[in-house]
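task queued by scheduler; priority normal; single chain, no ligands, no partner chains; default sampling; output format set to structure tokens
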Amino acid sequence: MAFLDKDYWTQRYSTGKTGWDIGHASPPLVQYLDQIKNKGIHVLIPGAGSGYEASFAMKSGFTNIHLLDLSEEPLKRFASLNPDFPNEHIHHQNFFEHNGSFDLILEQTFFCALNPNLREDYLTKMKELLKPGAKLVGVWFDREFDFDGPPFGGKISEYKKLFERYFEIKVLAPCYNSIPERLGSEVFMILENSKI
């Protein structure tokens, strides 16, 4: 799949083929969000799916959370489960067409859903959406898969070479608090938008 296909993802959701959906907010992102004092920062969660991180953030007092997904299916479910979440912060849209300015973007199984030929575009768009000094934070797979994706894998060494051209890498380390099924196969990154 060399392009973003709304119908593909909608079918995955409607048939329950959502192996990436862990049923709750990702522990590394929960721990990161728990450390943030300013709950008014503007946060984007692209490829948000069921939006567990957005739900957690809202319940933790964050007031400017935006979630985005190419498929409307999970967004409708999220809205029904989170009736107090502002509708104008739920974006049924192609990530590459989104406009905004954010202090933080959270990455959780979005990068690995994109064909690797879109990785440079992903980083360019992330840089465009982040304010100067803002951060892209999340978990990425540190493994290859023996099948055609998605998901698409990667390695720490590849990420370092690719990401350091766009961002200052603040943290790039094995993820110690992954869910048990992914322990040893994820990296945690904090990338700062400080490069020109």
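post-processing summary
- The helical segments are 6-14, 27-34, 52-59, 72-81, 119-129, 156-163.
- The chain has a mean pLDDT of 91.
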